[in-house]
Amino acid sequence: MLSAPRIHHKRLKPITANTSGYPNSTGINAEIEFQTATMPSQIDLFYQIDQAFKKSPNVARIFHGDRRICQGGRGRRTALFPSRKCGGHVPLESQLELAYAVVLERSPLVRDYRTQAIRIPLPGDRSAHPDFLIRTVDGTFEIHEVKPSIEYLSAEAIQRFATIGALLARTGIGFKVVDASDLCSGVELQKLLGQYSRGHIQAISQQQIDLGTTILRDGNINSFSEAYKLLREQQLPVQLADYLHFHQQWAFRSAKGLPNDQNY
Q1: pTM, rounded to two decimals
Q2: Is residue 100 within a helix (H) or strand (E), and if so which, with residue range?
Q3: Per DSSP, what are the bridge partners of residue 135?
């Protein structure tokens, strides 16, 4: 039996270096003393994970998790993201979670993911449904929470995340808390969603992807309009530019990240 964690808040190191390949997501280190509590077994946790990824979407192609996210409602900005990696719509509780779903969809390290997919029992008859359950391309699993500000987390939230991290560490499952400042929002998020939509309008073959990648990387391309023109001249779908840019297989030579308005 493990004991319930107590965190010495003054010693807390809220941000640690990220080496996972995910964009500046962070773990939370805390000094924990365990008191008597019942913790989830590895068998139960991995059974939940296995079932989460085996579960088929409903008739609307939505992957509901163990905790169902209801769409709509006054003051709520929920979303359904049509994930190609997951093979259906992923329900999300906020625009912040939508931004992170885009990150996971773009990442070459991520095979697929689910939201609110598993229940983790916590001390004191409590439980947690983490935001994202992630399966990587090498077959490992990670659990990520997305929050508006790590710096201003309450003491209760810090303790809860430290407890979850300690529990998951025993099973070899990675745990991270991602700060909103590391995610795109507003116009930048809408541009990425636009690229994603255009890039998947039609089926694109691997041969077209390979050829388009070579053509765009060899060209001195500074805008999407230039990329479209070059692809059209090579009799390739112009949407290849959106597809390749979204999936980080090609980027503008003169740009560090997202395109600005004149790229269109």
Answers
A1: 0.81
A2: helix 95-106
A3: 112, 141
